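Q: Sequence in, structure out?
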Amino acid sequence: MQVDIPQLDTLFYAVSARLTALETRVEALSVPTPVQPPPTPPVPSQVVLCADPARAYAWWPAGPNRDAALKFISEHVGLTESEAKGCMPGYKGLTWQYELDLTVFTSDAEAKALPDTYFVLNAIGTRWVQHIWNDDRWFWDISNEDVRLYLVGKLVRACQGYDGLFLDEHANITVQKLSDVALLLKQLKNMLGDKFLIVNTSQSSLSSGYIEQVRAAGSFDAELQWSSGAMRGWAFADWKKLIDEVSAAGGISLLTGSIGVNGPHGDYTRELMWRLAAYWMVRGPGVYLDLMSHPADANDVSTPYWCQAMEFDLGKPVGDMVGKDMGGGAIVFSREFEKGWVYLRGQDSWQTVDFGWNSGVTVTLPVSMSLLEVDGTTSVPLSSIALRTADSAILVKP
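A: Exactly. Output:
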């Protein structure tokens, strides 16, 4: 009898792959789900999460503003326990396991030994490879049930001892279907039980596929979208609706400020104030601000910038956000708080080229108020303001 060695190899790897999937399924199902009361939705006075653990102690500015900075951070900005404990004694918050280079692509030794059928293949049937950051990486075939089971088992084990899991850049729409990614997230969320699952989809628009992933995970990080240039026209209203939905379900919305810090207009301070105003506009249970990178190096996310305007507390919202069409494509949103008002205008359209005062629209204020400046000072009382495209205003009541 003649033995075909290549066929035996193929059979061996096929059986090994199935056994690996079955072992992973058993391991995932055997991970005990902690018995605990239903999670209480976070409130703005709680400290919860930050998107980048590497920022650690860069958030504690030295000098006379330190106490004010810590107070603001404790009420508005998400942190992990390890980041806060050195500066805020007695801190009690959530911790999470941060995962990058797993649910999109990988290059680790364990993955190298897995069958090729676990990965997206090229035209000649070998693993599709792309050089990302500092290594050649393969892309998981998330449509494969065995792959989803493998990843769920691995992620559940990685999350033991943590309050949640943060999946950063976990989908690639060029090689992975978003419906498959959403299915993976649903399976993972089900196995995590009451633990938080935060996803950064790394997509630049609020598509139906994006919303499907957010709903599956329950919490999200809006890294590529939270900027004045991405919020065009009425788009901000759709984001507010999604954030309200996440809050109502007890989830977390993390408003990241590390991308595009100079805005479409090239003015760092203007973009900083826009994102601060946008945060107040959608503020609610489980909504947290992330600080922007320092203007001296927009690519350095380890040195977030601090400004005194962050220290002003607008108080509780008096009403919900309202949008108004000002004509010419300009949409202005407003929201009243106990101590002031917030006004916000995103970039009018993709074709916008004029971000100067020629693009401005006049907004009549309900009462005379003072404009809050980036340095924490306020202007003389104003009865109206002008808002350029991709602009904002935080106003203080008398």
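The longest strand covers residues 361-371.
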